[in-house]
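W.,

You were right to be curious about this one. When I first looked at the sequence I had no strong expectations either way, so I just let the prediction run and decided to look at it fresh. Below is the sequence, 289 residues in total, followed by the output.
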Amino acid sequence: MSRSTQLVMILSAPLALAIALWALWPRFFPSQRDLDYVVRFDLPEVGMPVDLPRIDGPGDASRPLVVIDAGHGGFDPGAGQGDAKEKTVALRIALALRNRLLEDGGIRVALTRDADRFIALPDRPDMARRLGADLFVSIHADSADSDAARGASVYVLSEKGSSEAAERFAARENAAGRVNGVVLAQTSQTVGAILLDLSQRGTQAGSTQVGELVLREMRGANLGLHRDQVQTAALAVLKAPDIPSILFETGYINNEADAQLLTSRAGQQALADAAARAIRAYFARKAGV
């Protein structure tokens, strides 16, 4: 290498370093102008209720309203086995149930979610209460340590759960001033407690009746049951003592046979059809038909 070439390389090295430093400087040392941006978005205030879903079906407000809750959603997938996720199964069955009820007419329907998004547990029954629902149905898919467990189950709120719910419900309703439309400010504490107890007992009876009808329709369609009787549990999603509410565990997602039913369109439709028949039978009984 000639002496002149060496001299050029020596002299060009600082220039190359300066160019590299100039090019990389903004990445490692951003200017104030580069940092001068703000992303703004609104967060809901603590305790603020979530937006209410739309109500589909007849415009007649006297028609019964069913709020269907697809369990889990968003970053909460629920139970899962491979590509099968509870949040997806629950949403597809909820949509199929909504569509079946609307097709047959006479019943109004709302969904707590109609897409893959997260909704906090307390907000789900709260939507039903704020809409004035006549029935709340939460749809899930179960999972177990053993893949031998299979079949559907129906849960209603247990007595312990009911008592816990009633305390919160009473506090909230007393603050709001009414229970089932009766203004508590116009009643004594004793009468208010009696009204709440009667509301709760009637709700529990209605919940159990809906649950038994779902089990009956499941048996009739040979869809398989894990429990042949309505089960009770202190489930947060059912804690709305003034609305008949059930949790419909449609099957075990980690059981091969159940997974085939839960993930197929035909299986999802069969489960939705059974639930729809039970819901119609429940409202027919209430109407004395």
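Here's what jumped out at me. Confidence is low (pLDDT under 50) at residues 172-199. And, maybe more interesting for your project: The longest strand covers residues 135-142.

Coffee later to discuss?

I.
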